[in-house]
Write a structure and sequence with these properties.
Blueprint (H helix, E strand, L loop, with lengths): L12 E3 L25 E5 L8 E6 L4 E7 L2 E6 L4 E6 L4 E5 L4 E5 L6 E6 L8 E2 L2 H13 L1
Antiparallel strand pairs: 1-7, 2-9, 3-8, 3-10, 4-7, 4-9, 5-6, 5-8
The protein binds thymidine-5'-diphosphate.
Length: about 140
């Protein structure tokens, strides 16, 4: 739970590799060298209907890199004290989201693919899904 005392300033957009090729570019992300964690899980959101909002939770320990593999969307990051919105629209940029950050993903463009590289396998007990509970936890960590 100590990981949760994070701030939105710990969440940054990283430029990823890009091998240019007239017949199509390629981006490579390797565990440990390109990321501050080892990837244990990959998932992607797609066919998101216009106006849908995803996320709406924080993680206790999970680290993630979020990439707009196609199209675009906005990620709203909230550490309980400050918020920032990051627009992702290029497949060679990724947003690092550390534990203890409430995130919402909105404004999906048509055909958008939200690719997530995650540091842990799926674990429902790693989620904080109640915003009030999240705010209480962040307040406790900030004063302790
Ligand atoms: P959730 O993480 O809440 O999605 P989002 O934050 O994108 O809105 O997950 C949605 C559903 O999918 C939920 O029932 C849990 C399930 N799920 C898994 O079973 N495994 C996974 O790795 C993920 C990411 C979700």
């Amino acid at each position: 739970m100590t990981d949760c005392g994070s701030s939105i300033y710990n969440c940054n957009v990283m430029e990823l590799s890009k091998i240019h090729n007239p017949s199509g570019n390629i981006t490579i992300v390797q565990s440990d060298s390109d990321l501050p964690f080892r990837v244990k899980r990959v998932y992607y959101l797609y066919d998101v209907p216009g106006g849908s909002e995803r996320g709406g939770h924080a993680h206790k320990a999970l680290q993630q890199l979020i990439v707009a593999a196609s199209g675009s969307f906005d990620v709203i990051l909230d550490d309980g004290f400050m918020k920032k919105t990051v627009h992702l629209n290029r497949p060679n940029y990724g947003l690092m989201v550390v534990p203890g950050i409430w995130r919402e993903i909105i404004n999906f463009s048509s055909g958008a693919i939200c690719l997530v590289l995650a540091s842990e396998r799926y674990d429902p007990s790693d989620y904080i899904r109640n915003y009030q509970e999240f705010i209480e936890l962040k307040k406790q960590l900030n004063v302790s």
